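Write out the 3D structure for:
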Amino acid sequence: MSEPILVVRRGHIALLTLNRPDTRNALSGEAMFAAFEQTFAALNADMGVRVAVLTGAGTAFCSGGNVAEMRDRTGMFAGSPDEIAQRYRDGIQRIPRAFERLQVPIIAAVNGPAIGAGNDLACMCDLRIASSTARFAESFVKVGIVPGDGGCWLLPRVIGHARAAEMALTGDTIDAEEALRIGLVSRVVAPDTLLDEAFRLAGRIAANPPQVLRWTRQLLQQARTGTLDEALNAAGHLQGLAHHTADHAEAVAAFFEKRAPKFTGDAA
């Protein structure tokens, strides 16, 4: 079987492609769960990677869970309620935890339907750009289950409680323009320009110091649950480290010399 996630480097940008088009990139199976963990660990270890772009092979971004396995009560959906809960912990819930450990910023390039866990997967990313053909649904109620991958935690932090409640409680599908209107995505583009637009945004991010990008993402992640005092303490600590990086010295020198900086991620 082919790799669940294909990784292609373009300079300082890593393109990650969900590679299960036969299941519309459903999030199921040990190979897929492990692929997120292993891929993100590799990105974390490579200071040459400054930003990642996540998209899907074929016509879908991600169809969510495998409904055939739900019907057959196989895979994650086999066994007693307690056994299923444990399989969620050992299975799909590893994906949001992997995103929490990810150090580099990540952009979702939503090329098609992002349904159920696929919608939540997009919300795990820092930024979302959608093709005009994309559709979104927090559709778990439509198949008689709840968002077991953390969607009720993720979605309100992207679009607010009321809109998240409407999506989760109705299970209705929205198109890309509605997703833009409610803030689920930051822009909608033509299908044939999606990756170009995602890489253009990624390039603007990658132009900045790699270690500081990782620290900034860390602060954004921490701010989701932390208090103001915790945020200030974390910011102060990382700011102290930032002031002692070679890239900070380079940025200041470039400012005064009126030239483009050259960042390396090296310590001072």
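The CA atoms of residues 21 and 58 lie 5 Å apart.
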